[in-house]
């Protein structure tokens, strides 16, 4: 116990703690390290408890705590654990923002962005998840306002929110920027509004919202892709057969799927919902949220609709 009862001048305290004399004097002047005593000449003296106190101050400062926070701990106004928890939360948020900034910079390098785009990317990427969700909610509020839509269907549509991870990739940042621009685009909003109006009209008329049930539509798209990959045209025999089958599935009990006029009407109804931007909406959400990629089916759907339209002009329709 060689230090018990001993006192040290600032110079010796500096040698034992590795801190500069200037720093120790600063802490002492700030009231964090009051001297234990003074020499006859007025020099400050510190005891072993002062040394332990200085080591604590040094550790807390290395952890990034300010002088006020250090003072609160030393005065026992707040425990180290409480203060550490508070600073940990703040540090996590700072790290999240630094990661976002890094992702934005990587995206800027990748895209060779101009200054205005850089400003936009930084602004959008800095938004919180709640702010992103609110922007999307405003979009859906506008496109469905005042319409008698299927609430369950629209609830599912609205539930898919853009959530960037804490450490997003440049691709995810780019996807969010493109997504935000898309849902803010007046033309896209008009497109989805028109789709919503048709949706509401179908609800009011007691008709199916989709001409073809989604699970069956996917099957038709897969088969149409096979025909496309084989180089077949929409008005080929294979295209016509697929169109006939599709029309019969889509026909309501009081409609005839073999009627060319019904097929012409069906082709127009299907074409009304055919827009590459609507598909892009879900592709961008998938990138941001880390979902499985959404395939591009727009050209295939266009081929299938063309097949239905072609079958409507075929006068040699065979009724079964």
UniProtKB/TrEMBL annotation:
Record carries keyword DNA-binding: yes
Entry keyword DNA-binding: yes
Pfam family, one: MerR_1
SUPFAM superfamilies listed in its UniProt record: Putative DNA-binding domain (SSF46955)
InterPro entries (alphabetical): DNA-bd_dom_put_sf, MerR-type_HTH_dom, MerR_fam
Annotated HTH merR-type domain residues: 7-76
Keywords annotated in UniProt: DNA-binding
GO molecular function terms noted in the UniProt entry: DNA binding; DNA-binding transcription factor activity
Superkingdom, natural source: Bacteria
Official protein name in the record: MerR family transcriptional regulator
